[in-house]
Amino acid sequence: MFSSRLAFADNTNALSRARERRRTAGLPVIDLIDTNPANAGFAWPLVQLSTLLRQDGIQRQDPDPHGLAVTRQAISDYYNARGVRVPPDRLYLSASTSEAYSWIFKLLCNPGEEVLVPEPAYPLLEVLASLEGVTLRPYQMILMNGEWVVDEKSLTVSRATRAIVCINPSNPTGAFVGVRDRTALRTFARKHGLAILCDEVFLDYPAEGFVSPGTWAGESGVALLVVSGLSKVALAPQLKVGWIAVAGPNDFAQEACRRLEHIADGFLSVNTPAQLALPDLLRRAEPLRASVRQRCAQNEATLKAWSTAAGHRTTVYPRSAGWTAMLGLPAGVAEEKVLLHALEEGVWAHPGYFYGVSPSSPCVVLSLLTSPDLFKQGLEGLDKALKRA
User: Fold this and answer.
1) Longest Cα pair distance anywhere in the chain, in angstroms?
2) Residues 331, 44: Cα–Cα separation, whole Å
3) pLDDT tens per residue across span 176-201
4) Where do the domains of the chain lie, and which CATH numbers do they carry?
5) How many CA atoms lie less than 13 Å away from 368 in the CB half-sphere?
């Protein structure tokens, strides 16, 4: 009776089951993977949000498939400030970056066709692809000279391949798509007639000492679509506004826009108050983003100091950007065993295999957004778990 697209919903794992048992028993858990800005103390003041969401115009609907002109102009200005021209008519608003992904999968793929995706990467991609009837073909990100880069040998296609996903910067590796990888992906996409889907939600969060290569939204040489949204850019996930920026050669961009207009018109999913609030949110977001960058730097320093002092032979992987850290475990140590012990100590974190990290490189993925006190407490629990592993 039911669609096979939801087959992933039938899969559970020992960690999730153990966490649910602890929750059901009413036992506390320090969540070291929570990336909700408000939970970490980075919420917009209620007075500000209330004002922004009560603007003139919320009483009407203007059903433009692109989204409101004033909203798209503000997003265009966001890109202009980053040195790239993105015309408002090349922008399409969605209710989230997740919905933007689903629209692009609809745009580029028939059911059963495939998209190349990086590994490691955030596991939501697997869910979104399944819901669209799209197959994922992984390519590998590898550490080279202390930097995560595309393993070009792992880029392969079949007759069903239609696009390549890249994430600039990635979650959980924190790797930007730099000049080397842009050249590799651009060359590969041209050779095989593929489009590139570039996710840039964490673009504004370079780590200390790293310089962002910038947005890829100004690309003109290869078919490319960029997704981003308020969830990370303005630390406002509750307002549910994402967008697609269409780039690439004019013939591709014009046809992609024509088709996206039909897709967007079928949903008209972005609510008017959030659209009207977006221009002010984008203009005022930088102080909050700066606070997040500072928090991430503080927690990363704590993690590195703990890793050195604890003596477990753990390794903090290099991070160029983003909100997450990858803690490499000693060879032969099982991620799941460590994290089951951590749950018994009241600490929840993710194993690397959730993100497609090879079992030969066991690691734990942590949110650097966590409040510093809770982060330290969580590391104490992780220390106890590693001693038991």
Assistant:
1) 61
2) 43
3) 999 999 999 999 999 999 999 999 99
4) 4-43+287-388 (3.90.1150.10), 56-284 (3.40.640.10)
5) 30
